[in-house]
Design goal:
350 residues, Rossmann fold, 2 domains
Length: 350
Amino acid sequence: MIGVSLPSPARSAAHAIVSAETAWLEGPGKLVWRAEPMRNPAPDQIACETIASVISPGTELAAWRGANPLRAGDPYPRVQGYCNVAKALAVGEQVEGIAPGDRILTLQSHCSHFVCSAHDIYLRLDPDMDAAIVATSYLFHLGYNAVLRSGARAGHRVAVIGLGVLGLTSVAMAAMAGAEVYAVSDHQGPRAIAQESYGARGAYARRDHQGLMRALGPGADIVILTTNGWEDFQLALDLAGQNAVIACLGFPGRGTEPGAFNPLAADPFYTKQLRIEAVGFSPLENDARGFARFNLRDNLGIIARSITGGALDPAPLLSGVYPARHLEQAYADLAARKDGAITYWLDWTA
């Protein structure tokens, strides 16, 4: 291992920092670990050691399987993951509010150590916050952003299609907003979690289309679509009521041939006056005049406090824990839906 001495201005909890080990995906199914010397933190940076990270199955397994990229260009090599809780080891002299030993939430990848700007820290954890639990915050944020962007509020009928991680977090956040939530999945385990843990009024298999339509009455005011298949996009069009919103957290048609139907046919798109919107992004932070009040930085704080206060329970999402270096096995087990797994967290302290 390569040790790096710290500059004298840095506040440090250790005399040296070992090299950083980072998970890289060099191609479909080709996960490698790269050990790289860790540079010293600049005056506005922090050197960190990861405690826990959580797998985001949709994004990470798509890259693992070799799904067609969402943007132009070669998607490999690439780092994996973005749900990271770490401990600050060394803090530059210009950094305020963070001290060595503090635990922080960032969007860093699956890696043992890293150096980041103080601006890249989204939350300093309170002493009573569990690292693995708080590392799920961004996954809940994606559901929260879907709720915010679609305008869901008390009294709205919300249908959530797909009950992977993002479907379940969307159910939880829509229910917290006061909506009447109905979930769709062909898997019994996630349907039970949606109802018993996250407040869904009903959870239906796709084959029970008629039962779901009866529950929705005149139709859903909002459909949150978390899957990619054209069949589910067509289901979203069917479930949507008049003037409804279809909020897409998934990527309709990704990796498949065009559907056998016109997704923008006049009936239902024009007839129902539907709004179809991608809802994966939010402002990174508020602006100087406060017009971006619901932004990634503030939203993550809201979610972490909801978790600590007991309003949100991430435990049903976490199907188990793997030592960090067993990430490849974790991917394989998630891909196989071993024991109905939803996602895993990685322990970097072992």
